[in-house]
């Protein structure tokens, strides 16, 4: 808002009335009246109620996103080195994770690199298909707050259904805290999962991403009820991560909250450049805290120290994912009658999924894990997943198309469109975890994509190039 005020000062001798005022604590950075900005409310019915004003996302000049937020650079400089290190160390520790052998041959290692190269190609093309531009998005402040409240309540109600059953299982929760090895699996079994209903807990990621975008990019000042709702969502997400052993849930919440501020608030510096390293350390710490309750009580008799256990287990999740994907490709690859891994949106969808893949049927990957590996380490390896589901040609096309989607979402994020800002935190999280699984195609991301579509429709945003809006401000009608 300061830069607009300075512009107004320069124009004060020529004209009067150029101002952008905050209207009320909850409205934040708002348009006090349409005529003062010089653009007609006919731009959108969403902005016709000029008494409430509008939040303008992206009006303030911001820095470019950090280099590691670019999916191509993240893949080349972060994912690729981890993939190679995990593949190398797999030969030394595969037996520790109950795998029958090291399935990483030159052929399967090369397939993983080839799959990664196709993904990078798709991301590069997908990014270039959209023009790079500086976009500002205007949304009605009152409507934005109502949408936040609505999607927040949906999230909280879904969590209440999921975790509500634990009220009668306090003894199990206490046993988990005491370190009972079997309490964790029993807690996961008694959770009140309702297919298609409790999945809406994933709307929490959309809620946090939207709130982060409005606060970081539009100077929105949330009222008390929004803060209370946000804290509530974070608390139940933490409970889900601990009691349901879903560490990924907490990572999703953190990505939704901090990807946007890191991209557009944090000025370029050495610390911002090293943020991926700091992030890996923090993820390791969070992983170590979760595994203490999840599995340490069972494995402590086999290790001299907790650090030895947790470091091996942390890197083991990457190496076993690669070994699983390579082994399943060698033994079962391209023999699956129905795509299982990359089509989770469909095969695990309520009712429809049971028709396509009847309940109780062992999947190809499950068969491999039971015979040659361990069901405990069941990630299929994201760079191999498509080649387990389809023929070589179709799988290669799938990787390119997936890259096109990721690249397109990143370009929208660069352009600061509301859809890009809400969606890219989930896409970026999935990109950094591609060694383990195809997160974007996982069933848990379907509610995220659905939530972004619903929120964008409900907000009725008006987007235009930033220079056009500034020109309108300077030259009022």
Structural write-up:
There is one protein chain. This protein is mostly helical and 477 residues long. It contains 21 helices and 3 strands. The protein has a domain at 68-131 and 268-406. The protein is 62% helix and 3% strand. A 3-stranded antiparallel sheet has the order 1-2-3. The longest helix has 27 residues, at 306-332.
Q: What order do the helices and strands come in, and which of them pair?
A:
Elements (H helix, E strand, L loop, with lengths): L1 H10 L22 H4 L16 E4 L13 H23 L12 H24 L5 E6 H23 L6 H9 L4 H8 L12 H16 L5 H20 L3 H18 L5 H4 L1 H25 L6 H27 L11 H4 L4 H5 L7 H9 L9 H8 L2 H23 L3 H15 L13 H14 L2 E4 H9 L3
Helix pairs in contact: 3-4, 3-13, 4-18, 5-8, 5-9, 5-20, 6-7, 8-10, 8-19, 8-20, 9-10, 10-19, 12-13, 13-16, 13-17, 17-18, 18-19, 19-20
Shape verdict? globular
Query: SSE order in H/E notation?
Result: HHEHHEHHHHHHHHHHHHHHHHEH
Main sheet characteristics: 3 strands, antiparallel
Unreliable segments of 5+ consecutive residues: 1-52
Keywords: Membrane, Transmembrane, Transmembrane helix
Organism: Sphingomonas hominis
Protein name: Oligosaccharide repeat unit polymerase
Transmembrane segments: 72-89, 109-126, 147-174, 194-217, 224-243, 249-266, 273-293, 384-406, 418-439, 445-463
